[in-house]
Amino acid sequence: xxxxxxxxxxxxxxxxxxxxxxxxxxxxxxxxxxxxxxxxxxxxxxxxxxxxxxxxxxxxxxxxxxxxxxxxxxxxxxxxxxxxxxxxxxxxxxxxxxxxxxxxxxxxxxxxxxxxxxxxxxxxxxxxxxxxxxxxxxxxxxxxxxxxxxxxxxxxxxxxxxxxxxxxxxxxxxxxxxxxxxxxxxxxxxxxxxxxxxxxxxxxxxxxxxxxxxxxxxxxxxxxxxxxxxxxxxxxxxxxxxxxxxxxxxxxxxxxxxxxxxxxxxxxxxxxxxxxxxxxxxxxxxxxxxxxxxxxxxxxxxxxxxxxxxxxxxxxxx
Length: 318
Prior knowledge:
The chain has 318 residues and is an alpha/beta fold. It has two domains: 4-97 and 295-311, NAD(P)-binding Rossmann-like Domain (Rossmann fold, 3-Layer(aba) Sandwich), CATH 3.40.50.720; 106-285, Rossmann fold. The protein is built from 14 helices and eleven strands. It has helices at 15-24, 38-43, 57-61, 81-86, 98-101, 106-119, 122-130, 157-168, 187-192, 213-218, 236-245, 264-268, 272-279, 294-311, and strands at 4-8, 26-30, 46-48, 68-70, 90-92, 149-153, 172-176, 196-199, 223-227, 248-253, 283-285. The strands form two sheets. Strands 7-6-8-9-10-11 form a six-stranded parallel sheet, with helices on both faces. Helix 4 (81-86) links the parallel strand 4 and strand 5. Helix 1 packs parallel to helix 14 (294-311) and helix 6 packs across helix 8 (157-168). The radius of gyration is 22 Å and the shape is elongated. The two termini are 23 Å apart.
């Protein structure tokens, strides 16, 4: 008899990993965790854990037979890891899968794409051209990328991939990461020398508001800020202040603080960020699409489903 697994449709898994989950588990489907019932939670051995919904002690108490949690994410801040470990629940996510993650590259690619799009004002130039204007002169970027210095905050997997691409484009690269040797001594030093500041640190209590108003103000005039990590790292009001004053040339954000709150869409459209982006060409916003390629979705989802199967002894260990 197959173990019960609770899958939430809000996750929108690709067809192949979802079919594989149905092969391995007796899949119970709900729209999102707001539809949970005690009867369902008591029956499941496997639980899919979407971002934005805390899997904390309170919810774990409602899942007395839980043996594995599935989340195709590198961040596991929505899961109480200590409590899960205490209960012997396997957390089948990607935070501890470095070799596999080295094959997943779209966030680094999107980071470089945002740098080019913001620095060269590509969306605005496209819009102007579609309006019938054929004039290159309004769209001159300040300098070539090959003459810029990139400052990377967080030199883990993604930070290193972005650095490799940037160096191939001729950029000088510095980084700040207190856990990796060879970087600059302080975040302020990194910012003071960076034409581009790109964020690749994880979100946790230590990194919340890491890129504060003081760090942003330390950037040279005409610098650019890119965030494809987590919105919680960045003081967005301070960023907007420096864009409005002209101190920063441009910015591009793929992640926004609070985006995992289920009520986020209701107020995002009227936020200061969106209002500024509607009326200015030097801020690009994308809806957390850094990792959004069909193959990356499918491969990461399949990986964690298979990881859960191994944790339950349904498949042989690798």
